[in-house]
Amino acid sequence: MKEKERRRLRTRASVLFWLILLVAGLLGARLYKVQINESAALAADAGDQQRSTFPISGRRGDVVDRFGVAFATSLPASAIYAQPAQVKNADHAARLLAPLLGYSVTDIESVLHENASYIYIARNVPQSVADRVDRLGLAGIGRSDEALGLRVEPQGRVGSTLVGFTGVDSQGLAGVEVAFNDVLEGKAGQVMEATDNNGRPIPFGARVVQPAVVGDTVVLTIDRMLEYEAEEILRATAERYHAADGSAIIMRAQTGEILALANYPNFDPNRFANSPPSTWRDRAITDPFEPGSTFKAITAAAALDSGKMTVDDTFPARDEIEVGNRIIHNADDGMMASGHRYETIDDIVTFSHNVGAAQIAMRVGPQTMYSYIKKFGLDDPTGVDLPGESGGILGSPEDWYGSRLATIGFGQGVSVTALQMATAYAAIANGGVLMKPLIVHAIVGPDGRIVKSFSPQVVRRVIKPETSAALMTILRDVVRRGTATAAKMPGYELAGKTGTAQMVIDGSYVPGAYTASFAGIIPADKPEYVIFVKLDRPQGEYYGSIVALPAFRDLAGRVFWRESVVPRGDLGTITDPERAGGQAVGEPGLLGNNGRQQ
After folding, report:
1. Does 246 lie in the same domain as 168?
2. Residue 253 sits in which domain range?
3. Cβ-based neighbours of 346, under 8 Å, separated by 6 or more
4. Are strands 70-82 and 119-126 parallel, antiparallel or unpaired?
5. Which of 143, 294, 459, 550 is the most buried (most CB within 10 A)?
6. Which residue stretches of the chain have pLDDT < 70?
7. Is the pTM of this model over 0.90?
8. In-domain check, residue 20
9. Number of domains comprising the chain
10. Each residue of 249-273: b (16+ CB within 10 Å) or e?
C-alpha cells in the first residue's frame, strides 16, 4: 500500500515538475520576446504614453505693395468657446455675448444648447473683443489663442478683388491669397513634452519645441496709391453713368508691371461674406468683352506690319458698305470727319470709321488677321499670376463666315479681357514686344531675404519697331484731331483710342447695353505707361469718348504726378473734360439690331 502511495506521489511530482518546467519555458520565451525581440518597440510605446506631441501653426505671411504697404497681414486673435454643460443661464449669456461677437442672440443661444462638451462660438476674434468677453465672467465661456491669428486687410476695399481673402483657418480662397497660398502659408512646428497617465504635463519634465516658421511675404508690383486713385476714379465714373461694372489698369509698357488693377464693384475683404460673390470677381482678367474701336489699332498693326498696306495707302471715304449681306455704317451718316474723298489708315483710326476698318481687315485677309491677333496674345491667357484668367474668344478663320472678318476689323465678333488689351497696347508702346504682365515683384522670407524675384519676361516680338512708331503716330493723332481731343493735357503728349461696343449677353447683342472703353499710352513722346479703362452698361451716354476718356485723363494726371513726369512747354490751363471740344465726337464701333452702326 505504501509502495502504491509512493508511486502516486512520484507521478504527481513528475507531472508538477514538467508543468512547472513548461510554464517556465513559456515564461522564458515570452520574456525573451519582450526583452529582446520587442524591446525597442515597447520602449517607444511607453515613451509615447509618457509624452504628448501637438502642432504649432505658423503665422501666414503678408501681402504688400511695391513699397511695403500692407494689403493683408495677420494679427493676434482668440477663439471664444463654450462648455454647454457648465453654462448656468444660456439666455442671459447669449444676450451679453451677441453684441460683442456680432451674432444674433438666437444663434448664440442655439450653440449654448448644443449637446457637446466643447464647441466654438466665434473664431478669429480680435483680442480686444476677447478681453471684453473675459470680463463678463460667464461660467462655461472661455477663450483660446488662434495660432494663425486674425487675417486682416488694412486697406479695406482698395485692391480687394486683386488680393482676395482667406477662410476661417487662414487658407487662401481668392485672388493673390489663393494663387500664392503655398508661399504665404506658415510652416508648422511642434511641441513634445513629458506627461502623466492622464496626459497632463509633468512639472519640470522634458520639453522639446520645434518652432513654427512664419510664411513668406508676397511683394506686389502694385502701387497702393495708384490703386486707390484708379478705384476711386472708376467708382465715381461708374456711379455717374450708373454703369453695372468696370475695370481700370495701369501698366508699365516696358516691363509689363501692373501698377494698378481696379474693378467696380468691389468688396470689403474683412467682411467678404456680406458682399455678393459677383463682387469678389477680378473682372479685368475673368470677363471677356467685345472691345469695339480700341481693336482698330490691332487691325492697323496687322495691315502695316504684314506689308499688306502702307501709311500712304487709301480707301474711298464711304459711309457704308455691304459685306456678306450685311450693311456696315459709320456713326454719323454722310459725314466723313477727315474731310477727304479718300482715307488713309491714320484717318480711319483717328476718326474711328468702321467702314474703313472693315476694308482694312478684308484687304489683310483672315489668315494674316488671325495670325496678328494671336501674336498680340488676344486669344490666350496672358499668364499673369492670378487665378481665374480668361483667354478671350476668337475662333478660327474657318469660322469667320459672312461679315465676321469685316466686323472683327472694328472689334466686333471677338472678345478679350481688359488685361489682354492693356498688354497689347503695351506692345505697341514699347516698340513691338509683348510682355508677360507682372503682378508680383518678389517673394521675401521672414528673415528679410529674397526667396524669389520676378523679372520682366518677353513673350515674343509682335510687330517691328517701325510699325510701332507708325502706330504711335496714329494714336497721337486720335488725341490731337480725332475722337479723343478731350484727352488733351497741357504740357503732355498723349496717345490712345476710344472704344464703344454693343454687349453680347447670353450669345446675343442686347439693345441699349454697351461697353465704353479707352486705351491710352502716356507720355506719347516717350511711352512709359498704358492706361486702360472700361465700363459696362453705362446709362444715358455710352460712347467711350464721353464715358471712359475722362477717367483715363484723370488717371493720366495721377500717374504723371506719382511718377514725377514733368510737363513740357507752356502749361496753360488743363481743359475741363466736361467742356472740351472733342467730348461729343461720335465714337462708332457698334452694329445695332438691324446691322446699322449706332
Report:
1. no
2. 224-268+285-562
3. 311, 473, 474, 477
4. antiparallel
5. 294
6. 1-2, 33-34, 37-57, 189-210, 331-339, 569-598
7. no
8. no
9. 2
10. bbbbbbbbbbbbbbbbbbbebbebe
